[in-house]
Amino acid sequence: MQHQTRTAVSVVFPIVLACALLLIVGAVMGQPGSGDSKSAQKFSASSIQIEPTDPGDVPLPPEFRVAIYENLIAQIEKTGKFQHVYRSGDKDAAGAPDLVTLHTTARSFTKGSQKKREVTTVSGSTSLTLNVHITDHAGQPIVDRDVQGKVRFLGDNLRATYDFSKKVANIVRDTF
Amino acid sequence: MSMQNLIVDVSVATNSSRAARPRVWARGLFLLAIGAPWMFSPVPAHGQAADTPAAAPSVVQTDVKLVIGGETVKNNSVGTLSVVGSSLWFAAGEKKVEVEASSILDISTNEDSRQDITGAARLATMAIPYGGGRVLSLFSHHVDVLTVEFKNANGGYHGVVFVLAEGKAAPFKKQLVAMGAKASLPLAEPAPANQ
Question: How large is the ipTM?
Fold first, then answer.
């Protein structure tokens, strides 16, 4: 009886160990942000033009649209990835040879309340989600993803636009 | 000899009358030198970008916060917003922002609320025990938000957001629209001010 148990353990243990090893290897290989894949997707451009936010069907207040735009300009300039950051309609952008264009389209918007946030901590957060679309000079997409901006605890509602712009700047850093 | 002296005397007399002329000229040149800077000093013309507005402002509001978009003016600066001539002016200390009414693509007003206690004082209230800081968060006031979207001289799109006391944004929108600014939404009738 004892011999049978020992045999069972000696058979089952290597199988369990092999499965565990396979799972670990699979998890490591399946990591989306590994160093090689990041460096392989780097693009190069000397200038970027930022278009105003398209509110789409979302009732995004004008002050949020403007705050998103101005924060994007500031944060993308701060990345230092481009020699020129052009505003929409800037006549000088027409002469830029390798210009990329950043478009943002509103997907959802929830206006919270600063008072609620600070009194309850758990409710009243402001959140906005926008589609970020970066295209090259020929119009081919380089980046196309949804990004969320939030203000949960402290700060006024417009701070969600700053959070969003910081995230977009990180995407730009990873892409260029 | 006497003839020579006479001649000499005449020449001396002529020289003395001529010597007075350069003095007059010198005085004239001196006055011209003093007056020239005043004569040629630049006087700001109507509608021209200048350090200070030339005409009297038609709408003025103090304690206005420029939240974002003030290029040379830092975000969250507090200053005076006014409509002078055909432009919207914001001045915070030495820094100024001027937006020509004709360059405004859209102007809108909105309402929001702001906490009465902000900044360092706000952080200090977090240290109050038994949730006292949270009670202080209940104190807030309504404000108006004025959003201006415009084009710069190079055609580039800009936006600037101001926060004003309640009911103070509408006169700015009304005045700027009358001067040629575009507005996608018509101006709503202002609500009666709470006295």
Answer: 0.73
